[in-house]
Specification:
- The chain is an alpha/beta fold and 394 residues long.
- Helices cover 41% and strands 16% of the residues.
- The chain contains 15 helices and 13 strands.
- The protein has helices spanning 5-8, 12-18, 58-71, 86-99, 110-121, 136-143, 157-165, 190-199, 222-225, 254-263, 265-268, 275-290, 293-312, 331-343, 373-389, and strands at 35-38, 41-45, 103-107, 127-131, 148-152, 173-178, 203-207, 234-238, 248-252, 323-329, 346-347, 349-351, 361-366.
- A 7-stranded mixed beta sheet has the order 3-9-8-7-6-4-5, sandwiched between helices. It has a 3-stranded mixed beta sheet with strand order 1-2-11. The protein has a 3-stranded antiparallel beta sheet with strand order 10-13-12, with helices on one face.
- Strand 7, helix 9 and strand 8 form a beta-alpha-beta unit.
- The protein is globular and about 55 Å long.
- The N and C termini lie far apart (49 Å).
């Protein structure tokens, strides 16, 4: 079989395109806000990860523009050599203080942050232990380690303990979980995970991409939410969600960050985060801290949408966050639901196999702080209409 035979034999996407139901790579023609334009039509956005609604905030945009005026559009090199700016250092210090750690290091994407931290930290004859539903970037980081990756069923504490108890006590062990799971919308059972880590001589890393800006004091994340910041060794965050930009960071002890600075290939061999992106994050962080009412509004919107869906009789799973899954059924029905809702003026995201079990495909809704109650009620009306037409509601 030739190298490209699998490419020429791939026809799943084309089959869906021929049905007129292809829901990916939809082109947005406007700013990422509560409403966007697609094919010239205004659509309610219920598929964005901009939880605090800062992507179009004037202060964030001005900060990015001013950074370009001062620093230009790029750094023309890696942080390791010629690409470290004073704005990078300022942002790292602010982020470390915000999440309650000694130090932080920036990466050009959130994907690279996970990949770049896990790969060098887990050495030969050591273990990285992950929840089966962690983000793909964590899995990629695990695959690059010299150690062994082990997985446990989602939030199954008994299974995690059984796994940990089977490993050598004095071998290095890193447990990696999502603070908030990006499809299910539920939280890691961090209190019990931390207890097991102490018992079995392991360290804990939390990917808080969907937790920062949402949980904890002023949005400090899930470790703060549970009062476990000191017990979690490593906190990862991304800038493409609540921080309204692009990039990611790792926060930890000074020693861990210094080690990553000299061993993380994703950092050393990648170009630096752009000045505009760094400035946007810094401005978003300042807004996050100074405007706690944004998080309050985010939760008011979240509760209204979840309650409305549940009152309709729809299954929202175990979600306790602004990420709200709605059970639909087959992959094809989810594709139909996405297209029908788009035609009704509501943008949602499809989640199908293999991300979920066959027959348990969902539409994924995500709420923003600047949604209005009127917009949420509009979405509920359209979701009810479409799910009844599909036979999800009877």
């Amino acid at each position: 079989m030739g190298l490209l035979d699998k490419v020429y034999n791939f026809d799943e996407a084309e089959k869906v395109r021929r049905l007129g139901l292809y829901p990916y790579f939809r082109v947005i023609e406007s700013e990422q806000d509560t409403e966007v334009f697609i094919n010239g039509k205004k659509v309610l956005m219920l598929g964005s990860n901009s939880y605090l609604g800062l992507t179009n905030h004037p202060k964030v945009k001005v900060a990015a523009i001013e950074a370009i005026k001062k620093y230009g559009t790029g750094c023309a090199g890696s942080r390791f050599l010629n690409g470290t700016l004073d704005i990078h250092i300022e942002l790292e210090e602010a982020l470390a203080e915000f999440v309650g750690k000694e130090a932080a290091i920036l990466y050009s994407t959130g994907f690279q942050a996970n990949q770049g931290a896990i790969a060098p930290l887990v050495g030969r004859s050591e273990y990285v232990i992950v929840d089966k539903l962690v983000h793909a970037s964590i899995i990629e980081g695990c695959r690059l380690t010299l150690g062994k990756m082990l997985r446990f069923p989602h939030n199954d504490i008994k299974a995690l303990e059984k796994l940990l108890s089977s490993l050598e006590y004095d071998r290095g062990k890193l447990i990696v979980v999502d603070g908030v799971y990006s499809m299910e919308g539920d939280l890691a059972d961090l209190p019990n995970i931390v207890e097991l880590a102490k018992k079995y001589n392991a360290e804990v890393m939390v990917d808080d991409a969907h937790g920062i800006g949402v949980f904890g004091k002023n949005g400090r994340g899930t470790a703060d939410h549970f009062g476990l910041t000191d017990e979690v060794a490593i906190i990862m965050g991304t800038f493409s969600k609540s921080f309204a930009s692009l990039g990611g960071f790792i926060a930890s002890s000074k020693e861990v960050i210094d080690y990553l600075k000299h061993h993380s290939r994703a950092l050393i061999f990648s170009a630096s985060m752009s000045p505009a992106n760094a400035a946007a994050v810094k401005a978003a962080l300042e807004i996050m801290k100074s405007e706690p009412e944004r998080i309050e509004k985010l939760w008011a919107n979240t509760n209204r949408l979840r309650k409305g869906l549940q009152e309709l009789g729809l299954d929202t799973g175990k979600s306790v966050s602004p990420i709200i899954p709605v059970q639909i059924g087959t992959d094809l029905d989810v594709f139909k639901a996405c297209m029908m809702l788009l035609n009704e003026g509501v943008f949602v995201n499809p989640v199908v196999t293999p991300a979920v079990e066959p027959g348990k495909a969902i539409i994924r809704l995500s709420v923003m702080a600047n949604h209005t109650f009127e917009q949420i009620d509009f979405a509920l009306e359209k979701i009810e209409k479409v799910t009844r037409q599909l036979g999800v509601l009877v």
